[in-house]
Amino acid sequence: MPGLRAGPATPPPARLGADYQLDVSGEARLALGRGWLGLGLAALIGSGIFSVLLVASRTPYVNRWLPAADFFQISLVLHVDLSVLVWFVAMAGLLWSLYGTARAQWLAWPGLWITAAGTLAMALAPFLNPGQPIMANYIPVLESPLFLAGLVMFGLGATLLVLRSLLAAPRLGMRYDGRARWASAWARPPWPRPSACSASPGPGPCCPPRCTARPTTRSCSGAAAMPCSSPGPC
Predict the structure, then answer these.
(1) I need a labelling partner for 142 at 20 to 30 A (CA). Which of 9, 74, 135, 160 fits?
(2) Cα dihedral 113, 116, 122, 128 in deg (nearest 10)
(3) Do 75 and 127 sit in the same domain of this protein?
(4) Distance, CA of 142 to CA of 151 (rounded, Å)
């Protein structure tokens, strides 16, 4: 387009003395973050235990002590769910709890405890109520009432986490610190905006407010053609 020059966007230099660290002040936010971190670590430990059971289910004489005949796929289901599903939701809860404000605390802890209860029910299902493993889904499941009830509880707790995080999201004002300068720098267009219209006169009664090299007459619907008679910048 005329008057526009393409070029790579150059982010502004880092401001001296800017705070690029996440503010984690506040006992309520720290305690809630520790709770989500504990859930994530427990999920990783449980995932490691089920990875050991994967090997045990293929070991002769040892697999006889396992509660189900096809315990290899059952262990694989729990290994994937704990290390992927529970871990990522717990890390999201950790970051959102530390970054958010102290609003809507009445949703914060119930979301954590319901998510943790659902995780515990899913982890105990292979030993208390084992079912047929279903590997067709991206999140594999067990056809077990205890596992499915735990999965529903986990989804409810994750929903409360998302709702509370939306309510407690901090507001950005007109002043941005170092944490927001890089995001605004990458969002800028890679070319400068034109300051004046050089191809045609300024907008008149029927002219669109943009630069164009076409003839300077426009016709409105239901009216005759009118010239662009107002000179000046766009």
Answers:
(1) 160
(2) -70
(3) yes
(4) 10
The answer to whether residues 145 and 35 belong to one domain is yes
The count of other CB atoms within 10 Å of the CB of residue 53 is 21
Q: From CA 190, how far away is CA 10, in angstroms rounded?
A: 8
Per-residue pLDDT at 207 exceeds 60: no
Of 86-90, 101-105, 196-200, highest mean pLDDT? 86-90
46 and 161 share one domain: yes
Same domain for 144 and 37: yes
| Residues recorded for the chain | 234
Instruction: Tell whether 119 and 78 lie within a shared domain.
Output: yes
Domain that holds residue 227: 197-234
Question: Does residue 222 surpass a pLDDT of 60?
Answer: no
Instruction: Write the CATH number for 75.
Output: 1.20.120
Orientation angle between helical segments 105-128 and 27-56, nearest 10 degrees: 10
Instruction: Give the closest residue to 148 by CA, choosing from 129, 166, 171, 164.
Output: 129
What the block records as the tokens of 209 is 């407010």
| pLDDT winner (highest mean) among 84-93, 134-143, 194-203 | 84-93
